[in-house]
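Hi support team,

I'm filing this because I wasn't sure whether my run with NPW finished correctly. The job status page said complete, but I'd like someone to confirm that the output block is well-formed before I use it downstream. Pasting the exact inputs I used:
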Amino acid sequence: MENIVKGTDMKKIDSYTINEIGIPSLVLMERAAKSVADLIDKNERKQKNNITIQVIAGIGNNGADGVAIGRMLYLLGYNICIFVIGDKERATEEFKTQLSIVEKIGVPVVSSVIDADVVVDALFGIGLSRDITGTYEQLISEINKMKNIIYAVDIPSGINGDTGEVMGCAIKANYTVTFGCHKIGTVLYPGADYCGQVEVSDIGYPVQSYNEASEILEYAGVDDLKMIPKRANYSNKGTFGKILIVAGSRDISGAAVLCAKAAFRAGAGLVRIFTHENNRDIIAKLIPEAMINTYNTEKFNKKAFEACLNWCDVVAVGPGIGIGTIQQMIVEQVIESKIPAVIDADGINNIAADERVKKNFHKKLILTPHLGEMSRLINKPVKEIAENLIYYAKELNYRYGANVVLKDARTVIATDGQIYINLSGNNGMATAGSGDALTGIISALIGIGCDFEKAAVMGPYVHGLAGDMAAHKVSKTGLMATDIIEEIKSVITD
Ligand SMILES: NC(=O)C1=CN([C@@H]2O[C@H](COP(=O)(O)OP(=O)(O)OC[C@H]3O[C@@H](n4cnc5c(N)ncnc54)[C@H](OP(=O)(O)O)[C@@H]3O)[C@@H](O)[C@H]2O)[C@@H](O)CC1
Ligand SMILES: Nc1ncnc2c1ncn2[C@@H]1O[C@H](COP(=O)(O)OP(=O)(O)O)[C@@H](O)[C@H]1O
Ligand SMILES: [K+]
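And here is everything the job wrote out:
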């Protein structure tokens, strides 16, 4: 797992590294600048002699980075100039040092913005402290209108490093090189959208420095796929989990099929679908690998359902089950059984307003609400939740003890007080049935022996990677839940 911190916490990490550890500020800055200059050089080298580059520098240390990047590119032979905006008298010591160096070297420092082919955005970094107005706002609007390639230094100017919100206006970058680790502002929307492609550059912050952060969030990367257990040779289908999927309702069968298929593709050994009796034939046709048990809305056989619960290792309950007293009873029974469970969609809706049931939530539950379901669950408006994903995921996890996978364009996971943000996936995944696939994946991961809390983190990661692979093949626009499911096998390999 890799770190994500608030921009303001990164400033504390910076200052601890400089003042307590003793790595000089200019040393960190040199490494920071070098990583940006290296990326620009890698991308632009071929047209080196035909392009102009302008660094737009503020007078803080983000601007100081920019001036250093300008110097490095100048020394590499690029046609570059630096535009400084702000009162140089009020500049940081590092800025003054960097400016004096470029003046001695003879790097052009100009007094206006030019229509350069490449712009280095070093106006504001994590020191942005208020909304952008006046001449800065005009400058950003002017730069955004140009058809150039923009490289943002640390974070696009105007994005709040603590939240990802736009502080009045912001630079729309093509690339962002962020230092040390991701900031919340570079991963959450809308900030993430302003970053373009993000590269995290290790500029040498020692691990101790991260203790200065008020909170460290994490995200999964390719290396973390190792957390998914490999299949043992000495095994049988029971070894890889018995998954009970409670899904579908009268004549609604798709959700159950998608969820079950995703579970199989993610490695589940045995899948039993518990659904409405009308769905039996169609589900048997669409997924013959699954066992099927059915219920009848007129007289629900609680004992038969109990037998299914006794059979399984993991339950996934909710996709397409609809709303009703029987469904509510089912969800309650799952919760009371204390069997590890994933509760999704109508599984959540059926009990969302019932405090008595929610009090029974426990640590072996993973709730996977999208914003609408979360809104019903915690009785807050969707907009309020969308703007405070981390806060509400954490709050729900803290209040009831259940693990939370709060699904959105960036899914936020809260398990045992730790927050994770999923960075895989794409907008093509905003398509019917995509969430059903996720539920299947998470339950299969639990079934095959992945650590329970980690399944809540790795599920969305695997789902997103499969979605990315599928989008590569069929495009984001054309992506269907089935395409995501088909790619799970390329993510979880032997
Ligand atoms: N050694 C180091 O420390 C390292 C630091 N690093 C780099 O430093 C960056 C952080 O530098 P920083 O702390 O100096 O803050 P920065 O982002 O330049 O902004 C502060 C300036 O902006 C101004 N300002 C703020 N908001 C404003 C607004 N709305 N409208 C107008 N002005 C506004 C503010 O003015 P003031 O509030 O004082 O009036 C001040 O002048 C970080 O992102 C990374 O790039 C790396 O090189 C690694 C090593
Ligand atoms: N813009 C997006 N970028 C990345 N992932 C997305 C985006 N929109 C939706 N998703 C993902 O797709 C899934 C949609 O789930 P859900 O809303 O429950 O769909 P459904 O109910 O149709 O199955 C979630 O995992 C969500 O994180
Ligand atoms: K910047």
